[in-house]
Amino acid sequence: MINDNPREWSNLLLDVLWAYRTSKRDAIDCTPYELVYGHEAILPAEVSLRTVRVDGQRHMTSEAYQEAMSIMNLDVEVKRAHALDSLIKQKRLTVESYNKRVRKKSFKVDDLVWKVRLPMGHKDHFYGKWTPQWEGPFKVTKVYSGNSYSLQDMNGETTRNINGKFIKAYHPTVWEKYAQNIQKSFPEF
């Protein structure tokens, strides 16, 4: 529709909004129109075809119609409360699903960590796709609130504070462990 005439989108906006507001949402288990007005929208086709619902309202007196609407308005509060409960439940399920995949990282003073190379995604012309994404190891020298850390490289040079999402635990390689064991066994070397 819009692909044929992209400049005519404003003419279709009312129709799109009507379709959106009168279609049922799984999250709230009803239509947005129903939450606002207390009953389902009467579609133009129902008026022209004179459906049972429309004919029933045509033969009502104004007092009977007002009483029917006030009864529906009482039900609206129940529907809104139910919709709110559904949204809260769905939000909780989304949070639980997300938190299953998130691993909490926390480091202590003197932990060894890798630090991401900034700017992220920068590739060296010489190494290309083999450009290292992490640098280090660094030693954590201070832990701040808000998952922020102060780091020091192995030469004793302090770096600026960095957020915990940009560091990860450093695990020495087999050869580094081997070299450390030899150094402990033979300190004179």
TrEMBL record:
Recorded GO MF terms: nucleic acid binding
Annotated Gene3D superfamilies: Ribonuclease H-like superfamily/Ribonuclease H
Entry-linked InterPro entries: RNaseH_sf (IPR036397)
Protein name: Uncharacterized protein
Organism: Saponaria officinalis (Common soapwort)
Lineage: Eukaryota, Viridiplantae, Streptophyta, Embryophyta, Tracheophyta
